[in-house]
Amino acid sequence: MSTESQNPGSARLRILVVGCGAMGSLFAGHLSEVAEVVGFDANETHLDAIRSDGLRIAAGGEERVFRFEVTSDAAALAGRRFDAALFMVKSGATATVIETLGPTLDGAVLLTLQNGMGNAETLMQVAGARVGRGVTMEAGRYLGPGKVEHLIRGQTSWFGPVRVETHDLQPLAEAFSLAGLKAEVIPDPMGAVWSKFLFNAVMNPVGALVGGDNRARYEVPEVRALIDDMAAEGTAVIEALGGTFAFDPMGFVKKVRSGEVPLSSHCGSMALDIARGAPTEIEELTGFVVREGDRLGVPVEASRSVYRAVKGLEFAARKRASAS
Q1: Which fold has domain 191-323?
Q2: Which of 28, 94, 156, 215 has its Cβ near the most Cβ atoms within 10 Å?
């Protein structure tokens, strides 16, 4: 079943979505129902499909089509002004895309919902920028040009200030909620950020190592033990940094193991990156745990072994992709 959604003419917010991969596309599509949205991305094939046929979002056996403006040309945005810029690019691309967009970001609230550590700090380098950070528990998968799948829906996203007033983030949170994406502004987002970070730093690289087969993460005793070792190491590092957790980082894993939540086929974004030869966020996730563990004198041997193995996988996947 397919239905089509049109962007209303009376947009309340002007939102630039920076990075239209799986999650960026999901947010851009849904937000286009309640705001004036522009998607910025380097994948011209994906953008051409959106321009031609709209963005198709598959979820729960249905498909919806969303239409909004997209571009890969920063010069085409010259003179445009946005109320908010939502950063969804891979962590390693944050600094480059900031430089590329330049004055287009002036005056906008910059919000990162990216995986990994260091993105908010990179956004803070934009002179005078109002910066927020947060996490989303929604999940999606890129299916091909112009189409993504909404895998996990109905979860709350949390936004909070880094260098911005909380009330400046409220309009964006309200836009999310109006678009059917639960969102809440909280005074200190770091507890939520640390919780989501640890989950990703453990589960994403393990998902890549098992070749994207989610059953291996839950049904192989040795892999379960590896996950538990990495979680313990990451917890120790974060606590040594003075971090706390807003929720149990491994709570979802425990629910799947107990049978409270069914096992899905989704094995994390890093497995998908490896499969298509794309750069991963291993440096900003598990690499952060390893570097900080070494700096603080916290043992991180399980995390180090996984980090090293994924670096090898990333190299091999990149070589395969370039040869094809």
Answers
A1: N-(1-d-carboxylethyl)-l-norvaline Dehydrogenase; domain 2 (1.10.1040)
A2: 28
In tens, the pLDDT along 78-118 reads 999 999 999 999 988 999 999 999 999 999 999 999 988 98
Distance CA 17, CA 77 (A): 13
| pLDDT tens-digit readout, 209-266 | 999 999 999 999 999 999 999 999 999 999 999 999 999 999 999 999 999 989 988 8
Quote the CA–CA distance of 108 and 72 in Å, as a whole number.
19
Structural tokens at position 20: 């239209």
| pLDDT digits 0-9 by tens, 158-171 | 999 999 999 999 99
**CATH topology identical between 2-187 and 191-323:** no
Q: What is the per-residue pLDDT for 122? A: 95
Q: What is 2-187's CATH topology?
A: Rossmann fold (3.40.50)
